[in-house]
């Protein structure tokens, strides 16, 4: 079995693979103050409570955008699961041609998502939209070239910014509103966030298809915690929740 771990700013997702199938996904809140013991006990417990033997794990791969967690996570994997994890970072084999001014600046999550997407759709132009704490879009050509992308505030960041930067607006639940406008302040914020985000993503994808891929066939993949919220809006050709975890598995195979 292979364990993959995706450490995000808000939560840490884990995926357990048997052969090519992800048989288990579980997560916990990301806490930079967590000790290696806390992380290790969580991992062992989550596996055990779901009926899997941690001793059957053969490899562990990690993707982290929170450097402060990496040391404790690495020690937890060694102490509690018996394996030194592979972290996605500069210098590992990715199978991608990184057309970036400074490849070391590319987030590990972006690399992993691109690797997972290319494995799913080889020989296709790809637009990968990750709707997490931040919203990112990355472009990968049919020749496996990582071209770059965009980064913009995610839904939760936007909600927090409105609540923290104004006197009369409060934090609201992030959800698709019933109408395209609000008849209350809460509904107005929800409509602005939901349709504003959808419009931005839609416009970026239009521009990418037109100006980067020049009208060629392009697959738009959605991933991240809020991707499913936009399923009815038809922003994506496919939503793959565990895309980063699949990419981490691919990195283990290549390295």
Automatic annotation (TrEMBL):
Keyword check for Cytoplasm: yes
EC number assigned by the record: 2.7.1.33
Subcellular location: Cytoplasm
Entry's Gene Ontology BP terms: coenzyme A biosynthetic process
Record's keyword annotation contains Transcription: no
Top enzyme class: transferase
CDD domains for the chain: ASKHA_NBD_PanK-III (cd24015)
UniProt cofactor note: A monovalent cation. Ammonium or potassium.
Pathway info: Cofactor biosynthesis; coenzyme A biosynthesis; CoA from (R)-pantothenate: step 1/5
GO cellular component: cytoplasm
Residues annotated to bind substrate: 100, 107-110, 185
Binding site for K(+): 130
Binding site for ATP: 6-13, 133
Cofactors that this protein relies on: K(+); NH4(+)
Active site, renumbered: 109
One Gene Ontology MF term: pantothenate kinase activity
Alphabetical UniProt keywords: ATP-binding, Coenzyme A biosynthesis, Cytoplasm, Kinase, Metal-binding, Nucleotide-binding, Potassium, Transferase
Catalytic activity, reaction form: (R)-pantothenate + ATP = (R)-4'-phosphopantothenate + ADP + H(+)
NCBIfam families: baf, PRK13321.1
Subunit: Homodimer.
Family, similarity comment: Belongs to the type III pantothenate kinase family.
Function: Catalyzes the phosphorylation of pantothenate (Pan), the first step in CoA biosynthesis.
Protein name listed in UniProt: Type III pantothenate kinase
Species of the source: Treponema bryantii
Lineage of the organism: Bacteria, Pseudomonadati, Spirochaetota, Spirochaetia, Spirochaetales
Gene: coaX
